[in-house]
Design brief:
Blueprint (H helix, E strand, L loop, with lengths): L27 H14 L6 H9 L3 H6 L2 H15 L7 H4 L14 H10 L18 E4 L18 E11 L2 H4 L8 E9 H5 L8 E7 L3 E3 L1
Antiparallel strand pairs: 1-2, 1-5, 2-3, 3-4
């Protein structure tokens, strides 16, 4: 979706000011939001792409003004309400109500080992990639209202395939619970002047990982 999360190439948003010796968390509440989000991810109610869509599916002005973990909290609450695991009035009253149990209820001692295992999105396939290294492609000029990993600033732009990464879960489908629908993913090189025009930094380029459905042969 064309929301507040997709800011590549946009002006007027102010400078980026890195914080020297920035801590991992700026307060205990951020630690709690992180822990709750990770814990609920093990409950089998949604996937990582649905979680990303829940965070970005809000008013762009609110998204831009919010801190990183405020965005995470918004997404978590939206998913919990959508799945009826959090009922109206619970947050306001501070009193839990009876809801249905989550699909999975992992034990606390299992979480660390599962985190260490990770969860690869690489999938086996019998299909062959449509594009090869060196092929010239154009990113489709589309504006889906749901989750996508196709940046707005690349749409309609032409680049060169620099690598075939393999077949991965397609986030656009996975976020809508339509299934993993694995697709080939490519590393694509875009020249700076193709993306930004004559004002681009000389000799600049951008490499992006892009799924096959995003691309047309140029």
């Amino acid at each position: 979706m064309n929301g507040g999360q997709d800011l590549g190439g946009k002006h007027g948003l102010g400078p980026i000011n890195p914080e020297a010796n920035e801590p991992v968390f700026h307060g205990e509440w951020e630690e709690r939001v992180f822990a709750l989000t990770v814990a609920m991810g093990f409950c089998g109610e949604w996937n990582i792409d649905a979680a990303r869509f829940a965070r970005e599916n809000r008013d762009p002005a609110d998204y831009i003004k919010a801190s990183y973990y405020h965005v995470w909290l918004y997404g978590l609450l939206a998913l919990l309400r959508e799945r009826e695991l959090l009922l109206d009035g619970e947050l306001e009253s501070g009193v839990a109500q009876e809801t249905r149990p989550a699909k999975n209820q992992p034990k606390a001692e299992e979480v660390l080992s599962k985190l260490k295992l990770g969860g690869s999105c690489l999938r086996e396939t019998s299909g062959v990639p449509e594009f090869s290294v060196g092929d010239k492609i154009t990113a489709k000029n589309i504006s889906p209202k749901t989750h996508t990993r196709l940046p707005a600033y690349t749409r309609g732009k032409t680049g060169i395939v620099s690598a075939v990464n393999g077949c991965f879960v397609f986030p656009d489908s996975n976020a809508q619970f339509y299934g993993e629908d694995p697709k080939y993913c490519y590393s694509v090189r875009f020249e700076g002047n193709e993306l930004w025009g004559p004002d681009a930094e000389p000799n600049s380029c951008v490499y992006l990982d892009m799924w096959e459905p995003y691309l047309d042969r140029a």
